[in-house]
Amino acid sequence: MFISVPATSANLGPGFDTLGLAVDLRNEITITPSKFLSLSTHGEGDDNPKIKKNSLFLSIFNENYKRLTGRDDNFRFEFHNRIPISRGLGSSSAVIVAALSAAYTAADKRYNKREILNHALRYEHHPDNITPAVMGGFNVACVEGDRVYSKKRRMPDYLKAVVVVPNRTISTAKSRTVLPKMYRKEETVYSLSRSSYMTALFMSESWDLLRIASKDKLHQARRMKMMPELFDVQKLALKHGALMSTLSGSGSTFFNLTYEKDANKIAQALQARFPQFRVFILSLDNNGVITKS
Ligand SMILES: Nc1ncnc2c1ncn2[C@@H]1O[C@H](COP(=O)(O)OP(=O)(O)OP(=O)(O)O)[C@@H](O)[C@H]1O
Ligand SMILES: N[C@@H](CCO)C(=O)O
């Protein structure tokens, strides 16, 4: 069996816990039946004993494989990780979506992507990373009861993402604690109106107005203060022509959307100014999780 799951960038500025899109940077897992449990990890996290144990993947896989088959079989798992860990590119969602897809595939159960998405919500309680990880493309999502309701829009080839991955992690759990429990009406309306406007712009491919729509007052600046260099990343990306420049998920990565023709110029400027950070030019992904039995 083979599972491939994309990285995702959530929030996109004002769409806190609501908007997200998938990029073509994938974790891949090969799974084969085996007498004993065995794991090998290559790429991101291969020097981290906690990641190499991959208890998040194994606990979700085992729980769901047992639920679907009634059995506790052993497998060999080979992880090829490309998604940077705890950097705001949806590494935890990728693990959750991959583990669920792997369990259904290994159990030889027919399923649809909506089923995987609704199950994924039990492990990550906001839908903005898990939805594009499952579906691909740009997604707007909300939760009602224990279900995710979402709408996808495919992203065109002529847009690219320039992502800036800092050399320091920010965990989502920690990054949520710096946010206030209550918001003022003005801040809420500022972000709510832009999130709605941004959704309309994505749905109608009106990219040139994203700069206004992507501004936010709910979470970005509060989180960026944990790594103040990020204010310069954003300024520089916008100066060199990015259509929008937003904190990716809970950080620390910055996500810059651009026309393909401007991608190199933006990436070079950012890499020159921040040699300690990794800068990637990525295509946008419209496929989401892929499984082969
Ligand atoms: N490839 C992986 N293998 C095993 N565990 C992983 C892997 N990737 C992520 N994790 C788990 O997920 C945690 C990171 O989750 P966290 O939500 O903080 O970051 P993120 O998902 O990368 O960021 P964001 O949700 O803001 O996009 C890691 O500490 C680890 O427990
Ligand atoms: N919407 C989430 C994304 C990170 O998982 C947050 O901003 O905390």
Question: What's the number of helices?
Answer: 11
DSSP strand content: 25-35%
Q: Can you tell me the number of structural domains? A: 2
> What multimeric state do the chains show?
single chain
Quick one: CATH class of the largest domain?
Answer: Alpha Beta
What is the radius of gyration computed over CA atoms, rounded to a whole number of angstroms?
A: 19 Å
CATH structural architecture of the largest domain = 2-Layer Sandwich
Structural class, from secondary structure content? alpha+beta
Shape: globular
CATH topology of the largest domain: Ribosomal Protein S5, domain 2
Question: First CA to last CA: what distance?
Answer: 4 Å
Low-confidence stretches are none
Element-by-element helix/strand order? EEEHHEHHHEEEHHHHHEEHEE
Bound molecules: adenosine-5'-triphosphate, L-homoserine
The main β sheet shows up as: 7 strands, mixed
Number of strands: 11
For the residues shown, what is the average pLDDT?
Answer: 97
Helix content: 25-40%
Family: Belongs to the GHMP kinase family. Homoserine kinase subfamily.
InterPro entries: GHMP_kinase_C_dom (IPR013750), GHMP_kinase_C_sf (IPR036554), GHMP_kinase_N_dom (IPR006204), GHMP_knse_ATP-bd_CS (IPR006203), Homoserine_kinase (IPR000870), Ribosomal_Su5_D2-typ_SF (IPR020568), Ribsml_uS5_D2-typ_fold_subgr (IPR014721)
Protein name: Homoserine kinase
Organism: Sulfurovum xiamenensis
